[in-house]
Every structure is written in structure tokens, then in C-alpha cells.
Amino acid sequence: MTAHTQDPARDTAPERARTPRPAPRAGRAHRAATRTAWAYLTPTLVVVGAVTVFPVLFSLAMSFSHVDLSYSGFELEGPTLDNYVALLTSARWYSALAFTLFYTVVTVAVELALGTLIALVLERLTAGRGWLMALLLVPWAMITVVSAQLWAFMLNSSYGVISWFFDLVGLEVVILGEPAPAIAAVMIADIWKTTPFVAIIVLAGLVTIPREQYEAASIDGANAWHSFWRITLPQLTSTLAIAVLFRTLQSFGVFDLPFVMTGGGPGTATEPLALLGWRVMFQSLNLGAGAAIAVTTGGIVLIMCLLALKVFRAQVGEVRR
Amino acid sequence: MSTTAVKPPRRRGRRRVFNTVNVSAVVIALVTAAPIYWLLVNSITPTGEMGTLPPTFWPSEPTLTHYEEAFGQHAFGRYVFNSLLVACLATTFVLGLSLFAGYALARMPVRGKGPIMVFLLMISVFPTIAVVTPLYMIERSLGLLNTHVGLILPYVAFNLPFAVWIMRNYLKDLPYELEESAQIDGASTTRTVWSVILPTVRPGLFAVGVFTFTACLTEFLMAMTFNSEDDMRTVPVGIALFGSEFEVPFGTIFAASVATVLPIAVLALVFRRAVVAGMTAGAVKG
């Protein structure tokens, strides 16, 4: 145990000699170890920084500029708030924001509830548990574009199997042709694909809860419902919190599912922020406004992250020792 | 008799076949499997039978023509090659970098581990749309558009944070005696990581590998934006852009989909333990 408690204060010990030769003294060995550690970390931090942090800053700069595109390159003129003004006065941006928020809240909530239910079933299942888990991995491993094409096909108004079934029970609706059903359809496609992921994460949390607690509770006369609320749920909190965080942030950046399944339609009913931003940038070639959309989307994600920093801290806390 | 009345209904439930758990399990399985079944069936249904009502639940004459079309008429083979090349190389880099970065964060004296971990976690969930335009412009000026490198680079960067996170969680739990004995034998740190740590964290590397590989194979936004030339498309882009505005060749799309989903699914099933371990390492351990 004592062997690995490393004292971060040692880092500040004054350096005596710059000789790289390994010295027997603990302080110098420690310094050498720190240097090696940074050598291990640097490539990762450089790659991640160059490909993510730098572009984010670049987006930020573009969002405050008039971007002039020419064949050979581009020019930034600014600073200006025009892009953000255009954004805040655009009904389409509000529509995309509303859809993205609604989509995120509903899919994450449903996936969490269903995922927990499925995890509870999986935990109690005595036969065929491995098979069911294997089956649940298939939607997770499926390319989103594939599931989007598949759902579009099943929901097609003239030959889709689901539309046919709706007809059979007397429901006349062109599912992908009207806003509300189309929004529901996109959400269902996402729920089908992602709930298994949540279920498997929750299951991993479930199996860590000691059996004895349930036995003790049942001796005290608690029924399954009580056990769930009093024992299971409290101990799942951190697992669920992480699952919610990951799913929320992923949902918020949703792009490929509506792009392929509905093209953002009908109208702009299923157009998320990422799709709107992409269209403004790559189809309208309005890079400044597109960057403003991208930056605000990223900003909202960042704010959600900071709000959830407590959860991060709980996870990271151990490292800080 | 009185004992059966007092005992909780648990035992009774276990013996019956039609209890809540089993029935729910069947429902879950059916709901999950139905779309997958539909994908499989329609990839072997002749085009003439695909648009009929009531739907054809099993083709009268199963056919492989859609598969021939996908690989013959469309350049689907080329897309598969592009996807595999990009995914394999990106995964290799991610594995190498995350092993060492994870080791440094889990077991070495580095200041600011907490902020680094939070930074990595935030990056791993940051929306792609926020970086895709600047990356496009950078790649355009570097001549990286429509190249494999142009995709490998961002894929490595976007998958590294989560990979480092998983590796760190695996490495954290290893006994310290491993390194101590290696150090007594006079091995350098890099040598220790390579020949002592590496073999013991195979499950962790495996989870990272499966995760990164799957993520690279399924990524869409950057692949579509950076590699728009038909020759350089990856599988998801190819599947999304098959056909024209007027006609969507669903049969071909589904054949191509099965051809790609099947290997991933088999991979996921065979390495189920590693996949599940990987999924949960980031979430539950800590």
C-alpha cells in the first residue's frame, strides 16, 4: 500500500543537477519519473489539442467575423456580432434549438427508464441471459446510418411495414410527412438503437449491489417495489448520472440519424442544431453564421458539462489523491 | 401449508416459465430483433416483392442479387476498403497512445491529473459540428481532403480521450508488485510498460480496440464532409448517399448494410465480455 502513495509535493523539490543519469536518491528518481510521465502524455495531449482545441478557437474567431471565401482561401473581417444577431433573429435556429432540446430530454429520459427496466430483467433472468445481451449489442454496433435507412424504409408511407400495420389498425397517418409523428419516429429510432447501451451500463452497476441488502430488506418485509426505491436506485445514482451525462451530450450533437432518416423534414421539424449548422456552412457557404451555430451548440454542451462537473469530480476525485 | 403462505412468492416465480421476468425478456428480444430481421429479409428479397402490400415477411425466392449490385455496380468494395484501412490505423494509434497516456495518469507522478482527466472527458463528448468547419479548412490548406490521413487524424484525436479514460481505469487496479519487480531487475519505465504492463492489460486494450474500431467504422459527419469523392468514401457515407434523389435502392442499401453490420455484430458477440467491460469501465469503475 505505502509503495504507491506518491506525494505530489515532491514535485516542487529543488532540482540539484540536470544530469539525466538515474540517481539513487528518491527525489531525483521522482523527477525522472515525472519527466517520463509527461513524455507519455504529451503525444496524446498534442494530438487532441491540435485536432480539437485549436479548431474550436478557430470556430470562435469565425463566428465573430465576416468570412470571405475565395477560390484560393478565405479572409476574416471583424470583429462583428452580425452572425449572432442573424442567429438570434432566425426562426429556423429557434426551431432547431427547440427540436434538439426536446429530442435530448425525451430520448435520454426514455432510454434511462427503459434501460433500467431491461437491466433489472437481465439481472433476474436465469436462462438465456448471455443470448439476450448478445442480441442487445447488435443495435449498439449497428452503423447509425444503417438504422436510419432501415427505419425510413419501415416507416415509408407507401410500402413501409409499420405504415401498413398502422393502416391495418385504422390509423391513417403519413408518419414521416407530418411534424409530430416524424419527431416521434426519429426519437423511437434513437431509443431502439441506444437503450441497450444504457441497459448494459446500468446492469454493471446493478451487479455491484450486495445481495445481502435485498435479503435483509425482504426479511424486514419490504416488497420488490420498496427494495427498488430504497436499495437499488440510491446505489445506482452515480452509474445513472454518468450514463445521463454521456447520453445527453451525445444526443445534443445528433446529426446522422435525422440527416438520413428525414433530411430534417418535413420542413425543418426534425432539423437539429448540428444539421442546421452543417447546412449553413457547407451548403449556403455562410461560414460565419455556421460557426456561430457551431459555437453556441458547443457552448451549451460546455455549460451542461460544467453543471455536471460535480459528477466528473466524483469520478476524478480518486486521481487527485 | 402455512410455510408456503408465509414464504415470499419469489420461489414460486422462479419455477414458473411464464413469470414477469421471462415474459419481459421475450418482449425485449422481439422488439430488438424485429428491425434486424427486417433488414436481413429485405436484403435477400427481390426488388419486385419489396414494395408489395401486405409486406413480404419471407421472400418466395430468396436472392443474392442485391449483394451483387452492391459490390458490382456500386463501389461498395472500395468503401469497405477505405473504412477498414482508416479504422485499423486509427485504432492502432489510439491503442499505443492511450496505453502510455493512461499509464502516466494512473500510476506516475504527474501534477494536474484531475484537470487533465476532466479536459479529456469534455473533449470526448464535444459535438463534432463545433470543429468540423475549421478542420475542413485546415485540411484543405494542407491538402488532406479526400485522403485517408485526413480521416485517421481526427478519428485518433476524437477517440483518444475515452480510450485514455478506460486504460487509466484498468491500470489503476493492477498490483504495484508488477512494476517493482521489473524495476529491481533494472528495466526502464518504457520497457516495464511494454513487457510487463502490456500483457496484463490485454482485456483493457481489447475493450479500447473494439470501441475505437466501432466508432471509426460508424462515424459519419467528418467522413462525409472531408472525403466527398466517391473513391474515398467510407461505408456509412456510401450507404447514406446510395441512389439518387428519385430512387432509393433499398435492396442494395440493405445488402451493403448486412455486409457491414454482420462483421461488427459478430465481433461484438464473440468479444462480448470485452465490449461490456469497456462500456462499463468508463461508467462504473472510477
Automatic annotation (TrEMBL), chain A:
It comes from Nocardiopsis coralli. It comes from the Bacteria. The lineage of its organism: Bacteria, Bacillati, Actinomycetota, Actinomycetes, Streptosporangiales. Residues 7-18 have a biased composition (Basic and acidic residues). It is a multi-pass membrane protein. The chain crosses the membrane at residues 38-62, 93-122, 134-162, 182-207, 228-249, 287-312. Gene3D superfamilies: MetI-like (1.10.3720.10). It is found in: Cell membrane. Its main location: membrane. Residues 97-308 form the ABC transmembrane type-1 domain. Residues 1-30 are annotated as: Disordered. This is Sugar ABC transporter permease. Keywords: Cell membrane, Membrane, Transmembrane, Transmembrane helix, Transport. Belongs to the binding-protein-dependent transport system permease family. CDD domains: TM_PBP2.
UniProtKB/TrEMBL annotation, chain B:
Signal peptide: none annotated. Belongs to the binding-protein-dependent transport system permease family. SUPFAM superfamilies: MetI-like. It is found in: Cell membrane. It is a multi-pass membrane protein. This is Carbohydrate ABC transporter permease. The chain crosses the membrane at residues 21-40, 84-106, 118-138, 144-166, 205-228, 248-271. The keyword Secreted does not apply. Keywords: Cell membrane, Membrane, Transmembrane, Transmembrane helix, Transport. Residues 80-271 form the ABC transmembrane type-1 domain. Gene3D superfamilies: MetI-like. InterPro entries: BP-dep_ABC_trans_perm, MetI-like, MetI-like_sf. It holds the Pfam family BPD_transp_1.
